[in-house]
Design a protein that fits this description.
Elements lengths: L38 H6 L8 E13 L4 E15 L8 E6 L2 E5 L10 E5 L2 E8 L6 E3 L5 E3 L12 E10 L4 E10 L12 E14 L2 E18 L4 E13 L2 E15 L4 E4 L1 E3 L18 E7 L5 E7 L3 E3 L2 E13 L1
Antiparallel strand pairs: 1-2, 1-10, 2-3, 3-4, 5-6, 6-9, 7-8, 9-10, 11-12, 11-20, 12-13, 13-14, 14-16, 15-17, 17-18, 18-20, 19-20
Length: 334
């Protein structure tokens, strides 16, 4: 689908300085604080856990119970994510803390797939790569994004980055898949009031059969377009021509879903998904409706220069089977 007013953005390196913004530090450390503020600068000045850059967020979680043959969505899990570098050239150490415990992944935990891997008390936890498509990032054999240089590193967006990870408990045969977004949010007082902004970027959703957690589909490597009318206080968008993957085989489809128009609330929004008018498929598939879907997004950086967030589909029917999915997206302003 061709959009006349939107073109793909080149990747924006985190090392570039932010432009605009008030140099006065905000009352909330999660908010953008000035022209030198970015994820890169916050990480570069942190060399240990004590002074790590800390981000608060919530993760979308699917619980896959292989003993019971069920996949269910759990309530959002609050988490903190801390990042620091032990040296200027080292990959960041990532510390994820949730109600279930704390997991630390450093450069020494990179495995042969360029993923973070950690064994802890009978469960295995893997932090999959940042959801980026730039600077040489590629897909591993499981369809997860990794850096070609073997460095799991947020490089393509300055102010926010979605990520995904999973846990596996061998004793109970239970896995979880989790998606979240972290970043430096635009302060509500710095949100634009009059202009229209166009954003584009990328997204990923993974779907699992409700009655067979081992069967997965995924949409990925696809463009996300958003339009924010700050004068009107609304945002809408499109997940454009998403390619459907079934296991490791691509199914030739052109599936497009809309982010339905919704009010901007402070520096964020919440909406749902609906098949677009052009949601036709080459393979003869029908775009399913997702009545319980929810998209949660937030504005990041200097004057709402980026938008990212998470996606949950709720349970829906597709070709006679019940599925459920979660995912994430990240975009930057044109």
């Amino acid at each position: 689908m061709k959009l006349t007013h939107m073109v793909p953005l080149p990747a924006v390196a985190l090392a570039l300085a932010a432009c605009g913004g008030d140099s006065t530090p905000p009352a909330n450390p999660q908010h953008f604080s000035g022209p030198d503020d970015s994820i890169a600068t916050r990480i570069s000045s942190a060399t240990s856990l004590e002074d790590a850059a800390t981000f608060q967020t919530s993760a979308k979680v699917l619980r896959r119970d292989f003993a019971a043959d069920t996949t269910t969505q759990l309530p959002d899990v609050p988490m903190s994510v801390r990042l620091f570098r032990t040296s200027p050239t080292a990959a960041p150490t990532l510390v994820i803390k949730t109600e279930a415990g704390e997991y630390s992944f450093g450069p020494e935990d990179l495995d042969d797939w360029d993923n973070f891997f950690k064994e802890n008390s009978g469960s295995w936890t893997v932090s999959r790569s940042w959801l980026s498509h730039a600077n040489g990032y590629r897909l591993d054999e499981d369809g997860d994004f990794v850096s070609a240089a073997g460095r799991i590193d947020p490089q393509s967006f300055k102010y926010h980055v979605p990520f995904a990870f999973w846990t596996w408990n061998e004793d109970e045969e239970i896995a979880t898949r989790q998606f979240a977004a972290i970043g430096i949010a635009t302060a509500p007082s710095d949100m634009p009031q009059s202009r229209t902004a166009y954003y584009n970027g990328y997204g990923r959703i993974e779907f699992y059969r409700v009655d067979d957690p081992g069967e997965r589909m995924r949409f990925g490597l696809d463009e996300v377009y958003l339009t924010a009318d700050f004068a009107d206080g609304t945002i809408s968008g499109l997940l454009d021509e998403w390619e459907l993957w079934e296991d490791d085989d691509a199914v030739p489809t052109e599936i497009s879903y809309e982010f339905l128009p919704t009010p901007i609330d402070s520096n964020g929004f919440s909406t749902s998904l609906a098949p677009s008018a052009s949601c036709a498929t080459i393979a003869g598939l029908t775009c399913p409706t997702m009545p319980d879907s929810n998209v949660t997004g937030k504005f990041y950086g200097s004057y709402a220069s980026e938008v990212g967030g998470t996606i949950e589909t709720g349970e829906f029917e597709f070709e006679g089977e019940n599925w459920i999915g979660i995912g994430a997206f990240n975009t930057a302003e044109e």
